Amino acid sequence: MPRHTVARIDLENLRHNYRRASELAGSARAMAVVKADGYGHGLARVAGALADLTERYAVACLEEAVALRESGLSHPVLLMEGVHEAEDLKLCEAEGFIVAVHDQHQLPWLESSPARPEVWLKVNSGMNRLGFAPADIAAHAMHLRRLGIRVTGAMTHFACADDPASERTLEQTRRFEAATSGIEGLSLSVANSSAHFRDGQPMFEWSRPGIMLYGSSPLLGTQGPDLGLKPVMTLESRLIAVRELAVGEAVGYGEAWRATSPTVMGMVCIGYGDGYPRHAGNGTPVRVRGTRVPLIGRVSMDMLAVDLTEIPGAAAGDPVELWGPHIGIDEVAARAGTISYELLTGVTGRVPRLVRPQS
């Protein structure tokens, strides 16, 4: 028998979260962001579950777009990083992939290629990762259109939309609007997940919900349920041993936790080799028999320890929720000094994904 360490995937909750994104997008259409293997939930699985709800998908790279086609989906797909070789433009045109163009070095590829894929221009409105300067967008759009290339959209990405108190999102929106004003025939897209929850934020034609689809909060200081979102992944394991520790006894590598009173300790068969964060500290909650209990000691590759003193009768075989409907992934991420995005995409391949409902 295999271990009982699994990630349960609730596709109905995924669909609920997409509908929530669509509601918040207003008149804009929401393209489902399914990059990074559907944020660790399975690319084909989540894209298929949303196929009747979304009109298009967004991914990071060509490999992900090809995987969507191989799964049988024919929706338009936006490649948010564009292509990395000129020869890939032909495949993009053939498969209906929309290519984000964000840097000068990509322009000669389009100029010399016989392929004419649909193109979106990326505007660097202040995040300073990818994108053309706002003042250059109109000229690039005109140049590419003269070559017969279909420039149909423009996009940008926000740096601080997760912080409701920040004014940077408004500044970036204004820069983007100024850069694209007067260019006819462009669909505009600015809104990542967090922008959906900003009062008065223009959504334009397309929003791009990502992490919110999977039930995690995109806003600082909040949990997914606070925003009407439902968790899609429940990471679950079981106790494999229970023992008593005397005062002064330590647990795990480096003896990072030591009992100050008689303690009932349980070992759970999950660790950083499964994607549970190694830096989750003492006190990080898990759930056993309906009760939140704290993690104690350092997380090992294959195991972690929890304090079961408050749960009389806890025994090997009891289920343990690491995150899910009762233990918020955003709380676990904060305890580990990271973000939920990293936790979801970091669940490793040795953890089976069990899907509900079955596809």
Automatic annotation (TrEMBL):
<dbReference type="Pfam" id="PF01168">
    <property type="entry name" value="Ala_racemase_N"/>
</dbReference>
<comment type="function">
    <text>Catalyzes the interconversion of L-alanine and D-alanine. May also act on other amino acids.</text>
</comment>
<feature type="active site" description="Proton acceptor; specific for D-alanine">
    <location>
        <position position="35"/>
    </location>
</feature>
<feature type="binding site">
    <location>
        <position position="129"/>
    </location>
    <ligand>
        <name>substrate</name>
    </ligand>
</feature>
<dbReference type="InterPro" id="IPR029066">
    <property type="entry name" value="PLP-binding_barrel"/>
</dbReference>
<feature type="active site" description="Proton acceptor; specific for L-alanine">
    <location>
        <position position="253"/>
    </location>
</feature>
<dbReference type="InterPro" id="IPR020622">
    <property type="entry name" value="Ala_racemase_pyridoxalP-BS"/>
</dbReference>
<protein>
    <recommendedName>
        <fullName>Alanine racemase</fullName>
        <ecNumber>5.1.1.1</ecNumber>
    </recommendedName>
</protein>
<dbReference type="GO" id="GO:0008784">
    <property type="term" value="F:alanine racemase activity"/>
</dbReference>
<feature type="domain" description="Alanine racemase C-terminal">
    <location>
        <begin position="232"/>
        <end position="356"/>
    </location>
</feature>
<dbReference type="GO" id="GO:0030170">
    <property type="term" value="F:pyridoxal phosphate binding"/>
</dbReference>
<feature type="modified residue" description="N6-(pyridoxal phosphate)lysine">
    <location>
        <position position="35"/>
    </location>
</feature>
<dbReference type="InterPro" id="IPR000821">
    <property type="entry name" value="Ala_racemase"/>
</dbReference>
<dbReference type="GO" id="GO:0005829">
    <property type="term" value="C:cytosol"/>
</dbReference>
<feature type="binding site">
    <location>
        <position position="301"/>
    </location>
    <ligand>
        <name>substrate</name>
    </ligand>
</feature>
<dbReference type="InterPro" id="IPR011079">
    <property type="entry name" value="Ala_racemase_C"/>
</dbReference>
<comment type="pathway">
    <text>Amino-acid biosynthesis; D-alanine biosynthesis; D-alanine from L-alanine: step 1/1.</text>
</comment>
<dbReference type="InterPro" id="IPR001608">
    <property type="entry name" value="Ala_racemase_N"/>
</dbReference>
<dbReference type="Pfam" id="PF00842">
    <property type="entry name" value="Ala_racemase_C"/>
</dbReference>
<keyword id="KW-0413">Isomerase</keyword>
<comment type="similarity">
    <text>Belongs to the alanine racemase family.</text>
</comment>
<dbReference type="GO" id="GO:0030632">
    <property type="term" value="P:D-alanine biosynthetic process"/>
</dbReference>
<keyword id="KW-0663">Pyridoxal phosphate</keyword>
<dbReference type="InterPro" id="IPR009006">
    <property type="entry name" value="Ala_racemase/Decarboxylase_C"/>
</dbReference>
